[in-house]
Task: structure prediction
Amino acid sequence: MAVANPFVRLSLAVMAAVWLAAGCETKIEDEGPVTLAELQGIQPEPEQPAAETETTEPETPTVIAGGAGIGPQGEGGGFIWKPIGEHTGKLVVILPPQYTGHASGAYTGVANGGRMHFRFSKPGSGYGRNILVVANLKAGGAVHWPIPNGAARTTY
Result:
């Protein structure tokens, strides 16, 4: 068994001490909209590269219905972003009952008033800030809910 170089061990110990002294936070940059499937680690189908255009105007984001975009903001009355679930201590997203059976993805069950539950591999704080939870609908299209702070409970 090889013994680690003392310099490497010391360097790692110093980096860990600095990180702990700084508050143990890791900055997570906003990656833009993330679907429920992506949050759960399910890889989406690869997108085809867009054709290059010769325009000098700045691009503006386009919201596209039909599953290719984030769609309109989802209806309220039961949406919950629960950053720390009781059973696992990890993120649980609960959709309003009107989406039960209409949203696609790997949900873990239907409970609490007939609402789909999606459970994730890390606490809500692990997803950072300015998150868009996007639910793709089986009939086509999508809806989304903005989450300003992944560490805070958010309801609609």
About this structure: The two ends are 55 Å apart (CA to CA).
